[in-house]
Amino acid sequence: MYEKIIRPLLFNIDPEKVHYFTFSALRKLFLLPGSQKLVREKFVVEDKRLEREVFGIKFPNPVGLAAGFDKDAKLYKELSNFGFGFIEIGTLTPKPQPGNEKKRLFRLREDKAIINRMGFNNGGVVEAVERLKKNDGVIIGGNIGKNKVTPNENAVDDYMICFNALFEHVDYFVVNVSSPNTPNLRELQDKEPLTRLLNTLQQENLKRPAPKPILLKIAPDLTDSQLLDIIDIIKDTGIAGVIATNTTISREGLTSPDQMEAGGLSGKPLTKRATEVIRFLSEKSNKAFPIIGVGGIMSPEDAIEKLEAGASLVQLYTGFIYEGPQLVKKINKEILKRS
């Protein structure tokens, strides 16, 4: 139904407009009596064999929703009914910001991909916290970044503001220094500034009675040498793990008309590279830390490949848009089949 009816209708609308339309429709859907029960019966797979304990958190299943879909924590409760084991919100910044100028989101249908240059558009961390106060059991990751106007030398302050504001309301943190859509942000992936940033956050984290896992989200465009640096940095700072990977700036092998639009590319063209990064980090570190695998998961087989490459959990974004919510169920069913 999704592939033959719903997706063709949605794909006839501007991608950013359809995102907000979908949010509004889902919010109204779940106001209907019995709707939550019906949706959960259709999409949620409950089985003890799907449970995973990773960085001290018990996940009901290993399939999560990646950051960027529910940036402002407006729909995490509703989205959890489609079978996700966890939801990552953000990227959030200290102050609200509109992001980059529109048009900034492009479907590459022929490539089963998306290019976005959203630019951390969000309503600010304070608004998101108010919504998260109403959470009643959804496992939430908090993806944090810096405001566009904040110079890199002051970036640590922005990350700290978000960390402190979100601490009581998320289960784990993700430090996003790998988006290609905030000017100079990726410079923070260099060894010295990244070590300083993560050390500062971890030092604050360890002052708390119950510290939260901190993960680092990295770009797929890092070289092997840079990935080895990432392994060293994780060891030196003591953070919990890595999310591999963010969107790519590569345009290799694309055929769609909008292929040269600026921004980060996600979807099927990223499948192979994201898996390569996961395998490299897992093997070179001797599985020293957990990895959440994300990037080009368009089928159950793509998810299994990432888990077999060394990921402990996986996340969807573009695959969820192209394949629909049924993909979450299909992945969990395939994991059970192989367990």
Automatic annotation (TrEMBL):
Pathway-wise, it operates in: Pyrimidine metabolism; UMP biosynthesis via de novo pathway; orotate from (S)-dihydroorotate (quinone route): step 1/1
Query: What does this protein's UniProt record list under function?
Result: Catalyzes the conversion of dihydroorotate to orotate with quinone as electron acceptor.
Q: State where substrate binds.
A: K71, N116, R117, M118, G119, F120, N176, N181, N246, T247
Ranked from the top, the taxonomy reads: Bacteria, Pseudomonadati, Bacteroidota, Flavobacteriia, Flavobacteriales
Q: Which residues are in the Dihydroorotate dehydrogenase catalytic domain?
A: 50-337
| Source organism superkingdom | Bacteria
Which gene carries the instructions for this protein?
pyrD
**Protein name, UniProt field:** Dihydroorotate dehydrogenase (quinone)
Task: Tell me yes or no: is Cell membrane among this UniProt entry's keywords.
Answer: yes
Bilayer topology term? Peripheral membrane protein
Partners and quaternary state?
Monomer.
* Gene Ontology molecular function terms on file: dihydroorotate dehydrogenase (quinone) activity
Q: Which NCBIfam families match?
A: PRK05286.1-2, PRK05286.2-5, pyrD_sub2
Please give the cofactor(s) recorded in the UniProt entry for this protein. Answer: FMN
Provide the catalytic activity annotation: (S)-dihydroorotate + a quinone = orotate + a quinol
- Which species is this UniProt entry from? Salinimicrobium sediminis
Q: Which GO terms describe its cellular component?
A: cytoplasm; plasma membrane
Does the record carry Signal as a key word? Answer: no
